[in-house]
Amino acid sequence: MSVPGERLDWRAIGTASQPVAWGAAALGVLLGAWLLATTVTGIVPRNVLPSPVELIARFATLVVEPFSGSTLEGHALASLTRWVIGVGAAIGLGVPIGIVLAWLPPCRAAFTPIFEVLRYIPPFAWVPIAVLWLGASTTTQALIVFIAAFPVCVINTQLGVAHVDRILLFAAQSLGSGPLRMLARVVLPVAAPFVFTGVRIAFSNGWMALVGAELVVGKQGLGFLISQGQANDSVATILVGMVTIGVIGSIIDVVLQRMQRRLLPWQPASAHSGTGRR
Amino acid sequence: MTSGTTTVPRWRVVRDRRAAASFWRREPGPLPRLVIAVGAVAIVLAAWWLATRPDGPIPPLFLPPPGDVAEAFVRLLSRPYLGNTLLQHVGASLSIVLGGWLLAGVVGLPLGIAMGWSQRARWIVFPVFQLLRPVPPLAWIPLAIYWFGIGSPARMFVVFIAAVVPWVMNAIQAVYSIDRLLVQAALTLGASDRQILTRVVCRTALPTLVAGARVALGNAWTTLVAAELIAATAGLGYIALNASRTLETGILLVAMAVIGLLGALFSSGMQLVTRLVAPWARDRATP
What we know:
Structural class of chain B: mainly alpha
Number of helices of chain A: 10
Helix content of chain B: over 70%
Helix content of chain A: over 70%
Largest sheet of chain A: none
Oligomer: heterodimer
CATH superfamily of the largest domain in chain A: MetI-like
Number of domains of chain A: 2
CATH architecture of the largest domain in chain A: Orthogonal Bundle
Order of helices and strands of chain A: HHHHHHHHHH
Distance between the termini of chain A: 16 Å
Order of helices and strands of chain B: HHHHHHHHHHH
Largest interface: A-B, 81 and 84 residues
Strand content of chain A: under 5%
CATH topology of the largest domain in chain A: MetI-like fold
CATH architecture of chain B: Orthogonal Bundle
Radius of gyration of chain B: 25 Å
CATH class of chain B: Mainly Alpha
CATH topology of chain B: MetI-like fold
Number of helices of chain B: 11
Distance between the termini of chain B: 41 Å
CATH class of the largest domain in chain A: Mainly Alpha
Strand content of chain B: under 5%
Number of strands of chain B: 0
Number of domains of chain B: 1
Number of strands of chain A: 0
Largest sheet of chain B: none
Low-confidence stretches of chain B: 1-6, 11-15
Structural class of chain A: mainly alpha
């Protein structure tokens, strides 16, 4: 989320350390209230919201002891595998298709209506039919991730290619480059930041879809872990699973953002926003 | 290829280029575009029909023929399936999605405006918000079921979580990115803080706020479908999962189609609202 770096000066009063202090205070108060409500006074019963201490203990147990078939790392690894397969397939197919669609307008005219119809069906709505097709397997989960990640890849690639200045193409052409060379040397560098933004959103959409898919089908994965936590009345397990899901998702996003800044420093300002979820 | 001398007007260059480019590199006109689109859809439908014929390669268990789907649709409209007709299931889904979405707006809009307006509010709330945001709304489903049971409150809660983030983020963005010149002008003319907030900020922010509402509605819908797959007693996701378990693929496809159709309706409906409320606006949603 790009909140502009500029602060609203006309209301600014403080120094740089103030936001950190206020934020830390807010989090501290929240943590204190949580501790107070659960451990100290016990107003909130354990089975509704466990105390932070209990949560940490549960986390340690889950790391060491298998729960519902494997340890926390095992579940996380299963989820990550499906995620990478699904998003990888989406990138591998989506980016070339996006280039083709932007480069050849008749193909776009043919593809767009079908694409637009299918795009509005949310990824999870594919879960029941994916289960029918592929059973409760890793492929099913990866397919859902693919469905969630594919449209962003196509749309952002298309957007990037459409962004190429005609003058650049004319210049390349008059300097004697053929269509393929033009694609490789002119179109791809200009489109790359948009494509990368698409990839980033693809990863985050895929992660969300994966969690949903794992809640419904499968015998492994973080989504499965939290649904088992619910089935076993263990709120601590649910919460540990949720935190793990959130942490992994944000780590990947931060890594990708760093990569984008390192690898593609020339991006135009508008590439940051790109086209997001529907 | 064109030799773009500076004296040739731009439209001329483009026109020449179109004439010179091959069919594949040319932007088709409105009529050819329509022909291509209709042709593509027809080809897909024909392929579907051919592949699912009685002696075709795909058995109806995997993909029913188009005729079966149409039949299932008509049957669902008139006869109840799992206790409700199709329209009642749609109604069940709609009431929860709209309820959760509105609730998220009631909470998220003031919160976001406050966070965009007051630096201190941003300092206090943003870290908490950032801590909760990376957890996908779907991951809240088990917790919601545990807390609220398998009723509508659980689904409403999950929809609320999914919708509140875009409401808040767009409200912050909208208020925060207001042209400072406008605010300074109002200050110079002697407006109070309250006047600036109501007369300048909220109006300028309107397009972004509506765009946020649109994203929120889309997220809410997507999340509700997932929630209905997991725990529900009525609704489109519920039908879809049941049809998949009982191998009634016709009904399954009808449910998917209706889900997609409603999603498209929400999106275009909100675009219409944007055009009505803020005709000067261009789409600038923050996902």
